[in-house]
Amino acid sequence: MTKQDLSPAEQALRDAALEYHRSPTRGKIAIAPTKPLSNQRDLSLAYSPGVAYACLAIEEDPTLAAEYTSRGNLVGVVTNGTAVLGLGDIGPLAGKPVMEGKGCLFKKFAGIDVFDIELAEKDPEKLIEIIAALEPTLGGVNLEDIKAPECFQIERALKERMKIPVFHDDQHGTAIISGAALLNGLELVGKSLADVKLVASGAGAAAIACLDIMVSLGVRREHIYVVDSRGVIQSEREDARSGRLDASKRAYLQTTSARTLADVVRGADVFLGCSTAGVLTPEMVATMADRPVILALANPEPEIRPELARQAKPDCIVATGRSDYANQVNNVLCFPYIFRGALDCGATRITEEMKLACVREIAALAKAEVSDEVAAAYPGEEISFGPDYIIPKPFDSRLILRIAPAVAQAAVASGVATRPIEDLAAYRQSLSRFVFQTGLVMRPVFTAAKASTSQGGPARVAYAEGEDERVLRAVQVVLDEGLARPTLIGRPAVIEMRIRRAGLRLKLGQDVEVVNPEDDPRFRAYWEDYHGLMGRDGVSPETAKVALRRSNTLIGTMMLRRNDADAMLCGMVGRYDAHLEHVRSVIGLKPGVTGYAAMNALLLDDRTLFVADTFVNDEPSAQQLAEIASMAAEELRRFGLPPKVAFVSHSMFGSSTRPSAKRMRMAAELFKRMEPDIDCEGELQGDAALSETVRRDALPATTLRGEANLLLLPNLDAANILFNVLKVVGSRGVTVGPVLLGAARPVHILTPSATSRRIVNMTALAVADAAAQALRHEG
Ligand SMILES: NC(=O)C1=CN([C@@H]2O[C@H](COP(=O)(O)OP(=O)(O)OC[C@H]3O[C@@H](n4cnc5c(N)ncnc54)[C@H](OP(=O)(O)O)[C@@H]3O)[C@@H](O)[C@H]2O)C=CC1
Ligand SMILES: CC(=O)C(=O)O
Ligand SMILES: [Mg+2]
Predict the structure, then answer these.
(1) 673 and 663 in contact (C-beta within 8 Å)?
(2) Using a 6 Å cutoff on CB, does residue 328 contact ligand 2?
(3) What is the number of the ligand 2 atom nearest to the C-alpha of 332?
(4) 63 CB neighbour count, 10 Å cutoff
(5) Other Cβ atoms closer than 10 A to 607
(6) How big is the CA angle at 332 (ends 326 and 337), to the nearest 5 degrees?
(7) CATH 3.60.20.40 given to domain 597-737
(8) What single string gives the DSSP state of each residue in 474-517?
(9) 310 φ, ψ (degrees, to nearest 5)
(10) What residues does each domain of the chain span?
């Protein structure tokens, strides 16, 4: 493909793709150390002499390699470059961008590390020797773009010799996805697997494996016709008659007068393309049966472009391997997750049961409602089961949550799991670290919240913005995870309409309670109570009624006050301060606390940092700062983190005598008296808060060990600015909060930028808080 052959759009894509590969770093993947290596001590642990202990331990017990090395999470993507995409035998070096790409996908979608290994070797026997010798390095082998029929022999031999999963992605990854696509496509066109006539173009690695899985799903072998580069595979062919036809092709040998794809595709219900660009013409499609399913999977250019297929048969369902069309049938939907499940249960191989578990999960996922994360990844696209959505999207974060556990379970059932996963629910929860960047940090909070629901029945959580689609999506997750019993404040007709539009399953009145601000039997009790509370602040009965009708947050706070709810979330719309006013007037402060404050958590690449006070106090006094630190430290414990508090300043241990420096110093002293058991330091500069070395250089007798995880800033501007700057420069930019500190009941005021995952996280936090309060009451 020279540059001149390309259309302007293709030229633009080519230029962008080459620039993507070249800059800012060459290639697409790098290796990064996972341990600190910044001083002499680290060096003696990582390398000589310390490393020898790890070596000797593994020598004594080889299974310890999974503990002391990264092998258990390391897959080799191995090729010899003989069938790179549909580009053919372009060699191992030219195939390297594809292998690096597979490495990126393994890491991005399933957290698996990859060595891409391009081998300049075509002899199958030699390849088998080379790859088998890599067993000490690798936890799994993903064979890639090795052509048929050699690939069959190579995979078979390696599976026999190696005690780790060996998986030829082009065969089985492709087969799994196309199997799922076929199931769903045929369901939509109302045809049965046993009845369809299926024609395949290609009889190589991908095609044969796809056909094998389709047969095991129910397609009849006698209804399958296969075409390779020499025409229809039929008994009159010279290679068939002379016995030179490869066994993989012989399995699909037909007796027929058809000789070409055009002959054989006539009347076919299904076309499977795993061959090369453009071999299926619109004229051929026109001869196919009604509503055909066309899986044109050659990469990068399919056997037919979808628009051409539709010209000939407007009612066809078309899938390709490309990401720029609907229905991307590509093995990326499978290989990261099947390896995740296999590695996590210590599977020694990948069995048929494990593959079929993938097919079922992928097919089912296309019919499940779409989560907020998926909707956000594909803005403007209609994503609900139908001709343009027969298969989940690659950025569907639920793939890992569903496929990996199903694979691990199937590995146990087929007897190949050396470390069976005992608690699948906990495993599924742990996988959320790949899906939601907050997954890991939120885990203790979710565990506490779920434990509380199983003990005392689910906590009742009121959502002030009950009509907001983000809230509805979050509530669906809250219900699915059994986190809480939600109450939505909002107009039922609007909520119903938005539930339908978002394709959610939750049922008003059954799964969730609704409080209609326009008409609710509790309204009278609420406004009377509110009037009783605010009568001396100029709130007349009329004003109380109007206030309640106008503010769903006020209704939510009244629900909490009157014990109609155990926790409340608001703030998705409007100003933070306006919501806080209602909390102040109706909920009030916790006993013994003098004020409110807000804290945000930031999930950075190498740490989680909590910052306060980000939203409430303009310039807190030393006393207030100490109290805020104390309340924030209690929240950190909910995240399972021992708080390490730093009162940060422009000043370092008395280097400045300005009032703010003195205030931070005083705050630290007060806090040390209030919470003598919590590690704390102040006043100190930001770098010293995070680095023990910097701190000790200034003051050897520092009272903080390690790195601070809770930063108290001198004023609201500083806290809010620090938080927002870190959100942008921290490559992950993921936050939890704001967490409202000081309120008498669990209530949090979110911000208009809250995502539905943030709402789920804050629900868990509020439920865990409600449970802790209930325990204190009982105590
Ligand atoms: N979407 C996806 O996820 C995936 C797509 N693929 C695509 O499938 C295709 C094949 O890959 P793979 O199986 O690994 O490669 P192989 O080299 O193993 O197989 C290629 C097959 O295509 C056949 N072929 C070549 N030209 C024609 C033609 N004009 N008409 C009919 N058949 C032809 C070859 O025939 P012969 O046997 O006579 O040489 C061979 O059977 C590639 O385009 C690849 O990108 C592969 C994996 C995944
Ligand atoms: C997607 C893939 O693996 C291929 O086209 O070869
Ligand atoms: Mg491939």
Answers:
(1) no
(2) no
(3) 1
(4) 11
(5) 12
(6) 125
(7) no
(8) HHHHHHHTT-EEEEEES-HHHHHHHHHHTT----BTTTBEEE-T
(9) -70, -30
(10) 22-30+40-168, 172-330, 335-421, 439-587, 597-737
Position of tokens 């059932």?
413
Indicate if ligand 2 lies below 6 Å from the C-beta of 517.
no
Contact 301, 325 (CB under 8 A): no
Write down the pLDDT at residue 54: 97
| Predicted-complex ipTM score | 0.98
Please check the confidence at residue 2 and state whether its pLDDT lies above 60. no
The verdict on domain 439-587 having CATH code 1.10.10.10 is no
Separation between Cα atoms, residue 375 and residue 394, nearest integer Å: 12
Query: Which atom belonging to ligand 2 lies closest to the Cα atom of 206?
Result: 6
From atom 40 of ligand 1, which residue's Cα is the shortest distance away? 204
302 lines ligand 2 (CB under 6 A): no
Ramachandran angles phi, psi of 702, nearest 5° = -65, 145
DSSP structure string for 444-461: HHHHHHHHHHHHH-PEEE
- pLDDT, one tens digit per residue, over 356-406 is 999 999 999 999 877 666 776 676 676 789 999 999 988 888 899 999 999
What's the CA gap between 746 and 769, in Å, rounded?
Answer: 6
| Alpha carbon distance 19, 24 (integer Å) | 9
Q: In what order do the strands lie in the sheet with 597-603?
A: 679-684, 644-648, 710-712, 608-612, 597-603, 734-741
CATH number of the domain located at residue range(s) 22-30+40-168 in this protein: 3.40.50.10380
- Asked if residues 408 and 345 have their Cβ atoms less than 8 Å apart, the reply is yes
State both tokens at 198.
């299926």
Cα distance between residue 651 and residue 666, in whole Å = 13
Cβ–Cβ under 8 Å, residues 393 and 181: no
Mean pLDDT lowest among 2-11, 247-256, 318-327, 704-713? 2-11
276 Cα to the center of ligand 1, angstroms = 6
**pTM of the predicted protein model:** 0.72
Q: Which of 102, 249, 393, 450 is catalytic?
A: 102
Query: Is 260 near ligand 1, meaning CB less than 6 Å away?
Result: no
Give the residue from 592, 632, 604 showing the smallest Cα distance to 616: 632
Would you call 600 helix, strand, or coil by DSSP?
strand
How confident is residue 528, by pLDDT bands cut at 50, 70 and 90?
confident
Amino acid symbol at 650: H
Shortest CA distance to 544 belongs to which of 528, 558, 563?
528
Quick: pLDDT tens for 621-652. 999 999 999 999 999 888 888 899 999 999 99
102 included as an active-site residue = yes
- Tokens linked to 14: 């080519």
